[in-house]
């Protein structure tokens, strides 16, 4: 909406700045379909893909080794100690789950707002969501040390002890929120994939590919009756996902806000967490989209318009996050509560101050660069900035969790937290899992929604009849 | 079974078009001509076809609503039953039936129920998965998922006649008309 305003300023002498379209001119049903399906159906796997996947796979194996060692030893291998019981597992959980949010925002909320630019990025953003949520969900489970023993207080099932989860705890709300989020995202993603899988079935050369995509496409034949129900269901799923995505990070923030720890017990947490989630999620979409469009020559589909719009959303949500920081600092002072006041003083000047100021310089200062058009046009710079945003958002969770826990009400119980190499190994390992899944996704499934791209080519517009 | 249905020799006749506009106009004309048992196949969803083919409202929203209601009731009931009846436990002096704490999970199970019902309901109404369908035997039909648009008048239609229907479809200026074997 805002962009079409920018294209032509009526009655203004200012030369209109030309914003690229959501799809480069000259594309047809055929060219869009062939280009996107060609990436998947080619027999030749690009060498760059093989190298990238190999690196990701090494880290995935590191994750498996760490999990194996964790399960035979216990969570003593991590740096968690008595005041800092949450530490890396929960930092990483919140970080990953936040990243997941952009996918649903793009696929659901932008669909409801009828933003056509979502079309070329929704598929891989949704895939990113699924993989990020899968990475996230592992951390709380592994954090229990013996996940198979945790089942009875995490999930409501009739166990032999007759015990049930404690439904008054936000931690249980979180179990429901995250598992619902994963399920609904998967259904949404799969629904979107079916017509594209049918295209792959029809275009595949080898028998194996034909049968595989044929089975996965459920026998989709593009019938008008099917399309009608399909479109209704797709819109409904979008409508259902919209409050869901807002609820998930709100509930994650309740894990903190419902407790009485200084720095956590705050009403700004739900909106501040949701904005932070979208902010970091868009940074990850950008981190993935920039190499993807370059490597596979998808600049016609993921145009500068998309890059600009994503940057603007990061700017807006980043500013909300920055407002959250300011608000936290203000209330630490205004509340007159000495524990809150010390929490903020400790963040700014204590042993972890360097991380606090790093996150402020990224999430509050550096993002101001996004105001400048020259920055938004510079792809290489944006790639670096989007990586930094991910670092900044990780540091934010580090600061929230570590500073508040390491120094709470009673100075005699204060202690420092030092991560161990296993902490880093598991974190790096989940990045490996995430990237491995993403590499496989790009190779085996259409990374851009073909049928939705076909709806935005000029041919798809119905012409007035001349008879 | 005394009465034996004659084996139909055709599933229907299928005309191929190059543009969505041509398909919509063909479907409209076929309906005006009196054909009812027909379907259109396209690589993109075309809203105008719903009207052209005279499709009614879908039941997907109703199914979704029912799923959501059941999910919500189920979630709340689970919480109430487990916290107040099956294993009442005093947590921070709160009542056993502390309903504000039960809202987040009730919301999540409502969403889950609605989404599952929507997903399963849509595919069941569409009678998918169905790996084989007669239209797949038409050679040109592989392009129905890429760049071509098809209208199939089925032989079950009372007005269907191999010759006159074929002639009618030809009059719509299609790329081609093919028989669809049963």
Summarize the model shown:
With 467 residues, chain A is mostly helical. Chain A has helices spanning 2-7, 29-41, 47-73, 87-112, 122-143, 147-154, 170-203, 207-216, 224-257, 269-295, 304-334, 338-349, 353-365, 373-376, 379-406, 421-444, 450-456. The longest helix of chain B is centred in the middle third of the chain and has 27 residues, at 60-86.
Can you give keywords for this protein?
heterodimer; A: 467 residues; mainly alpha; Formate dehydrogenase/DMSO reductase fold; B: 182 residues; alpha+beta; 2 domains; four-stranded antiparallel sheet; 5 helices; rod-shaped
Q: What distance lies between the first and last C-alpha atoms of chain A, to the nearest angstrom?
A: 35 Å
Q: What's the end-to-end separation of chain B, in Å? A: 22 Å
Number of domains of chain B: 2
Basic shape of chain A: globular
The level of helicity of chain B is: 40-55%
Low-confidence stretches of chain A: 1-15
Helix content of chain A: 55-70%
Overall geometry of chain B comes to rod-shaped
Number of beta-strand segments of chain B: 4
CATH topology of chain A, anyone? Formate dehydrogenase/DMSO reductase fold
The topology string of helices and strands of chain A comes to HHHHHHHHHHHHHHHHH
Q: Strands across the major sheet of chain B, in which order?
A: 2-3-1-4
User: How many structural domains can be distinguished in the coordinates of chain A?
Assistant: 1
> What is the H-and-E element order of chain B?
EHEHHHEHE
> Kindly state the mean pLDDT of chain A as a whole number?
90
Folded structure, characterized:
The complex is a heterodimer of chains A (467) and B (182). With 467 residues, chain A is mostly helical. Chain A contains 17 helices and no strands. The longest helix of chain A has 34 residues, at 170-203. Chain A is globular and about 75 Å long. Chain B has 2 domains: 12-57 and 128-180, no CATH class; 60-125, no CATH class. A 4-stranded antiparallel sheet of chain B has the order 2-3-1-4, with helices on one face. The model of chain B has no long low-confidence stretch (mean pLDDT 90). At the A-B interface, helix 2, helix 7, helix 9 and helix 17 of A face helix 1, strand 2, helix 2, helix 3 and helix 4 of B.
